[in-house]
Structures are given as structure tokens and as C-alpha cells.
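User: Please predict the structure of the protein below. I'd like the answer in C-alpha cell form so I can feed it into my own downstream comparison script.

Assistant: Understood. Taking the following sequence of 547 residues as input:
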Amino acid sequence: MGYNSKNNGGFIGRAADYNSDDSYYSYTLKNQTYTNQNLSTGSGSTNNNGDLIIQNKCIRTHPAGSKIFVLDENNPNGGGNSIIRSSNLSARNDLSTASSWTNHSLTITAVSFVFNGTGEKIYLLQANGTVQVLTIGNKYYIPNTNSISIVDTIHGISSEALDLQFNFDGTVIYFLVADWTTGANGRIISCPLANPFVITSGDIATSNQTSHSIAGEKPQAFCFDAQGTNLYVLHKSGTTSYSGKISEYPLSTPYDLTTRGTQTVNAISNTQQPSPLSFALSLNQEKLFVAGESNNNIYEYLTSVPYSTGKKNAGIWSMGESYLGAIDPHTHLLLDFKGANGSTTFTDSSIKSNTVTANGDAQITTADYKYGTSSAIFDGSGDTLTITGSNKIDMSGDFTIEFFAKIDTHTLNNSQQVFFETTPIGTNAMSNYLAIQYGHSISYPHRVYCWVDNTTSSSLNIDNISLNTWHHFALVRNGSIVNFYVNGVLSGSHIHRTIKDYTTTSDWRIGNDAYESAKPFKGKMDGFRISSVARYTTDFTPPTGGY
């Protein structure tokens, strides 16, 4: 697996793309602290003796931390089949902000499930190794009006299956299976896939399987970190030192289990859940969620606070929670402008969770948009979105700033409209100004141009841009070269006089200028994204359905 810059700007990470200094990027699960937050799943059914049977077999989270999912193997509503419950979280990865559960009944009994890279398919694993595939269409939204129907069935392994995961780009699928013949241990079976996230019977046939033994008693669930350089395995309660713990293996080659290093066993408090069955890690690395069969609660643990140290930790998530190219470790701001018509709430869907403040009449509109069901509208009279200056948006090296915009109107004689601007703190404002603007004059009709190095470089602009039409703009720094793409086509290049660090900035402003406020934007924007990598190095096709 390696770097893959797809036409839609997708990024597939690997260890070699990161700083090799482990002290700078390393992450471990040790020293978890229970946060006194838990969430009752309402799971459980009764047996013939009236005993409550709880089987919270699998936890998954939305990559933005806005949803949590739990699979109950035994549907308490009867029928003997499983149920997936989902709950919205109004504050990211905070169980105390959960809404009521929505139940999604299955027509099968499953032990685990995982999403594909875009959240539009669910892969359900049964104990006999059968994988059944459910297409849900909308990203991470499971229909709740009817029972889930299965669209495809693949027969897999013959052992007792416990959990499944994909690697980041969906080219390998992994199964955790019980291996009771060698004691209370297990195995992870890896199977390469001919096509990403597409499973055929040949892909998971015995001849295509590689088996990897797992040390420790009663493994129940597993996941990888974002780079695939660590494997984590949850162990159920037992009689050995592995009771209720997570074992961690470094992988010298991403996702290659044959390159496992020395196992480290990390304790998790089993006071709350002495018999754990499942766990999940939030994308921002800060939260660990654990559930099991001792009670029907999901318990929340604090694992680390990566950004307080200034380290550029890449993030950890269960691989079923990844968006290819949309929410990844290099996305430092992502505004999809989702919401109800007239809403003034703007949410950053990146792992950085930047606070976005609406000023003036900046708001959500459902009347027009590039993708999804809404966009941001600016009325040209001082509307602005501000992101308070911080070191969360890494602009020290390569970067990409991109967005869709629809310019509504203009006036002649150099009327200027600012799409965005920012300036490093403690520097001369105009000598370090970074912005994209629109202007119109007889000499420069309908020009979109970029400010870099205190200049509107003649190479970083385009004339005769059409109004009332959606356009994609991307400003990309790759080394000392700054490229400007319009609708995926290179419009011009500029060589930096000095590589400036825009990480610690004054406020980012979208829709106006901090220094000359008489440059308000009039129109609509969609899909505003800032990345800490050069996502585009050649012409590309802008995404049509989101990043």
C-alpha cells in the first residue's frame, strides 16, 4: 500500500510519508483514564431462564465523531437476529451528548460490521465467516424506516469469526478468528482484494489467505492506526495477564502483519467493563470506547491530548471509519456547509475541530449548492466566517487550499471580492498576505487572482471567469512552487521568494478581508478544505460529490 493521489484529491497515507522521528509522531494506548462518561445502549435479551444476555459485539464511530454505532448480536425485540443502534453526538466523541438510540434491525445474526471507505456500504460478519454486504447509499446514514436487506453474500473462513477490518484503501481485508485448538488464542487472516472494498469468493478463498497467530488469551476485536504502523487487539477477561487489556504490535511495513514487532500489553480499567468484547478509537486519537457483556454501557476513556503538545500526530481510527481523501490526517479544515436553511452554525469536519464563527449574515442556504443539499451564502455586505488563530491548521510546509465558489454579481472598475485571507501573527500584514480574490475592470475583466509573497503574481490568475457558475479553485504549495488550479486545470505557477510558515496565523477569514473590510464576497461557497499536503501536482478532475 502506498501514496495514491486520485483524481478527486484522495490521499492514502503510509508510514514513509511521515517524519521518521518516532518521538514526534508515535502514539500508544498506554495510560488510559476513564472519563466517567458512559452511554447505555439498551442492549440485551433474555434467555429461557429470564437472564439478561448482553452482546455488544462491535463499536464503530463516525470519522467526524458525530455518531456512534453499536452492534447487539441479540435483538431484544425478538427474532433472534442482530440489531445496529446509532446515536448522534452533538459534541464530538462525547458520550454525554448522545441523542436517543435509533435501531436498525438486521435479518441475520452478526458478530461484527465495518463500513467501506466512503461510508456507503456495511460489511456484516457472521460467526461462521460469512460476509454479507449491505448498500446504504448515504454516507454513514443507516435507513431506519425498514429492516435492513442484504444485497450480496460472500462465504469466507470456516473458523469462528470475531471481527473484520480493511486496510486504509480497501485492498486487503482482515478477519480475526478464534483458534481454540492452540489454547485461548486467535489468528488474524489477511486476504488481498483484486478491487478495493469489493469482496469475491476467490478473494477470501483458502488459497488466498495468510494466517497470523495472535498471542494472548481470548482476543475479541482489533484495529490499525491511520498509517497502518500499529496493530491493536482487545482481549476478553480470562485467567492470564491479558484479562481485559489491549495488546499493541508495531508494524515496520504498514498493514503487513508479517513485520510485527514486540508485543506491548496495555491495561484498560476493567472495573467498568470486566468482560470487554469490542472497542473503537476516535479519529482525533483522544478517546477510546469499550463495551462488552458485563453490562449494556459503552465506556469512554481519555487516551491522550495530541494537539496540546504541538505534535503532528496523524490520528488513529478503526479502518471502517475512514473517508478516502475527505477526512484523513492531512485535512486540517473541512467545511461542507451542511445544515438547515438559514442556519448560522458552521462545523469543521476535519480532525482538528476548528471553531468557526459566523459574522454578519453569513448562513447556510439550501437553495443552491455544488454537492450535498446546502452551501454557504454571503450577501456582499460584510458577511464573514472566521477561524480563530491557532496552530491546528498546519501550513508550515506543503499545503492545499481549495473550495467551490459561485460569484453572483460584480461592478466595474476593480470591484474586489475576497474568497479568503490569512496572515502569520507577528509579521507585517501585507508582506505575508495569503489570499484569493475576485476583481473586475476593463484591463482585467472578471479576474480571479492570488496574493502570495505580497504580490498578485501575474502567473496566479485567470480572466473572464463566468458568473453565476460553480468553479473549483485550488492554491497548492509544493516545495517552493505555488500552483493555482481553476476547475482542475493549472492556471499558473509562482516561485516563493521565502517559504513562509502560515501555521500560527491571525484569524482565517472566509468571505472578506481583515485589513480592507470593503472587499466582501457576494455569492456562495461549498467544500472549503485546507490540507497539509500538496494534493494536486498535475491537472485533475474536481470532485462532484464531496472530497
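That's the full C-alpha cell string. The CA atoms of residues 220 and 466 lie 57 Å apart.
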